[in-house]
Amino acid sequence: MTSTKPSKPRIVIVGGGAGGLELATKLGRRLGRGELAEITLVDANRTHIWKPLLHEVAAGTLDSHEDELEYLAQASTCDFRFKLGRMIDLDRERKEIRVAATLNQDGEEIIPERVFGYDILVLAVGSVSNDFNVQGVSQHCHFLDTTRQAEVFQTRLMEAYLKAHTQGKPLEAGQLDVAIAGAGATGVELAAQLHKVSRLLNAYGLDEITPAQIKISIIEAADRILPGLPPNLSEKTAAELRRLNIHLITGERVVEATKDGIKTHTGRFIPAQIKVWAAGIKAPDFLKDLAGLETNRINQLVVLPTLQTTRDDSIFALGDCAACPLPGGGTVPPRAQSAHQQANLLFKSIRCKLRGNPLPEYKYLDYGSLVSLGKYSTVGNLMGNLTGTVMVEGFVARLVYLSLYKMHQLALYGPFRTGMLAVSHLFRSSVHPEIKLH
Predict the structure, then answer these.
(1) Which of 365, 385, 401 corresponds to the end of one domain?
(2) Model pTM?
């Protein structure tokens, strides 16, 4: 029997992070609803949460189950298909991706290995932590790449507090101390949230341990925190963290993680039984040498300004897994705003490709950087063509920071549902504790 090509073009998006989910939603509403194309989103998880919120999930200041989105429900509402599974291989000649079998918690297969065909493929699989093969990191440090990892960290944190509260003896060295390797936005924002948690737990009755007994340290190899952001923003953030008695250790490169703490290249040892690795990212390992596609040293797919991969113009990549060139050299930074912009561009590009029209090129627009220290402060710099760079902090910066998440919600839910979510959040916050206590 001879196979016939599907009457509708097949657009497969792998990865339901910020960029991938926004793209699937927009394409579904425009092309799927009119049955002009078959849109499929593939992801290894059943639910989505905006990745910049994972440090709040880890600290317990955000309950992931209240802010998560169900992929199946979104697909039904927005006229695309959702397939649960993790991509493991690609056949460019046959235009097929292979998705691994899905197992339950007992290791039993619930969904078999499958193959999905495509006419246009978009890889939006994000990034994972890069431990640079530092000794002991994979065994002794927590990572915050997924909701599951953030929830595990929050559970371990609560267990550590409960144990210390009832053990009836003084704390051991580093027993409740937290060492965060990496002073990027994730490490810095997590430290501020953990400072808040230590005080709230004390207020909720776990008062055998005082906040002063808990030491939070951030370890950074560069000579300042937030090394990828402007120096004035770094200095302002450092001052706020020091005001919170968070210890900043710069110019120290981590060479080993042990059960009891962190060792640096100068021989320094930072005692901490709770350790987080936030010192760098890479694209998932399966992308390296994937069907002959070009990748860089951190597994990112090298793409043209059109976001097409260099060796296959029917395959696109966006977000953290894409190495997109900047005009002055280097590549687009792995930020949520980049993924959002690239998803918007690919929405237009895919429609152009289906019509046989030339594709637009991506031009990165840097709207600035914001770092939230929770209720204590928010600092950042905003960029504009007319104003240049403007430092913002406090209430104004907090509003801008929150607006980034609202932009993501607007892309997924539309104005009315986003407004209703904001109202429901206000009601929830009035009756729920400020942190997750279980």
Answers:
(1) 365
(2) 0.91
